[in-house]
Amino acid sequence: MAIRVKIFGAGSIGNHLAHASRSLGWEVVVVDISEDSLKRMRKEIYPNRYGPWDEKIQLFTTDKAPRGGFDYICVGTPPEQHLPLAMEAVEEKPQAILVEKPACPPHMELAHEVMEAARAKGIRMFCGYDHVVGRATEIVEEMLNGRQIGEVVALDVEFREHWEGIFKAHPWLMGPQDTYLGFWEQGGGASGEHSHALNLWQHFAHVIGKGRVVEVEAMVTYASEGKALYDSMTCWNLRTEKGFSGRVVQDVVTRPFRKVASIQGVEGRIEWSANHTPSGDAVFVFRPGAPEKITPIHKKRPDDFIAEMRHVWSCVKDNKPSPIDLSRGLDTALVVAAAHHAEHEKCRVRIDWGVGYTPEAIVPCR
């Protein structure tokens, strides 16, 4: 019997997840509150990206959507709806639920409740930070585990990319004020949209055994545009529970883009580079006195989502742990919230993980 997937949201992510699921031979239902969004998916977004419309994809408005009998439920809506829809999805008892990144806005509402509800019903939950399950990241992990650069002493990640590309790909949006992207409190802005960088930093910190982030120093640049209020750039200095420090920068103002993770060891440096060329990602190794070594990873954007959906299926089928478990996504969401708190209070903050996924876990370092 084919795997059945229900996807909430007919926007960009919904299209990517639908195409990825169909590429794996799964049955797909897409649900959206807007009939116009469903028509746009069928007539514009999907065929412009992937070729002819796949007639096997079923489209429903929310009031007519089928419930129950799905193996996976994916939530690809704006962030404020991620956890409310995930909570509803728990009641349908799928094998797994995947919410897009960021897992939730900085208010962190429903974070604990969703985790507990899913755990009580034995449902796996994931968050769509697909970069950490891509081939480039796997290669870096292999190098780190093989100690190719010795002990790691520094870790920096930058995702600097002007968001004009987003609006060119969504011509029905006139600017950030027309979408959650223009509102940091709704999970938009640089801190939410490019939180892949922060999540990647946290992932590599786990790979090298440095643990969770417990201390955050941040500088946030806010911008207003019409009704929109967003962070155009957020910079973190981070310290983990093992005393390891590093840096993350995310912005929506940089041209040309730069998406790089730099991992410095005592014997060399590894660089992870997303979209290094139009044909894919790359991993570099630099050692003193030796020529640089480059490993290209050939892929296209749809391949990221196919790998992500295949990863979810594998983890559920074989009951394996996952770096995109929802808990990791909520770790990232809380560190995003900590950055805004630190900026507003003009001080460094600590995260008390014992308090849980709530703003009360963030306390000033005074």
Summary of the model, kept short:
Helix content is 33%, strand content 29%. With 366 residues, it is of the alpha/beta class. The strands form two sheets. A ten-stranded mixed β-sheet has the order 14-13-12-11-7-10-9-8-15-16. A six-stranded parallel β-sheet has the order 3-2-1-4-5-6, sandwiched between helices.
Strand and helix layout:
Layout: E1 4-8, H1 12-23, E2 27-32, H2 35-50, E3 58-61, E4 72-75, H3 82-90, E5 96-99, H4 111-120, E6 124-127, H5 135-145, E7 152-160, H6 164-169, H7 189-193, H8 196-207, E8 213-225, E9 228-240, E10 245-251, E11 258-265, E12 268-277, E13 280-286, E14 293-298, H9 301-318, H10 326-345, E15 349-351, E16 362-364
Parallel strand pairs: 1-2, 1-4, 2-3, 4-5, 5-6, 7-10
Antiparallel strand pairs: 7-11, 8-9, 8-15, 9-10, 11-12, 12-13, 13-14, 15-16
Helix pairs in contact: 1-2, 1-9, 3-4, 8-10
- The helix-strand sequence is EHEHEEHEHEHEHHHEEEEEEEHHEE
3D shape:
globular
- Computed Rg: 20 Å
CATH architecture of the largest domain, by name, is 2-Layer Sandwich
Strand order of the largest sheet: 14-13-12-11-7-10-9-8-15-16
Helix content: 25-40%
- Derived from helix and strand composition plus strand pairing, the structural class reads alpha/beta
Measured between the Cα atoms of the first and last residue, the distance is 58 Å
The total tally of domains equals 2
Question: Please, could you describe this protein's structure?
Answer:
By secondary structure, this protein is of the alpha/beta class. The protein folds into two domains: 4-100, Rossmann fold; 131-300 and 324-364, 2-Layer Sandwich (Dihydrodipicolinate Reductase, domain 2). Helix content is 33%, strand content 29%. The chain is built from ten helices and 16 strands. Helix 3 packs parallel to helix 4 (111-120) and helix 8 (196-207) packs across helix 10 (326-345).
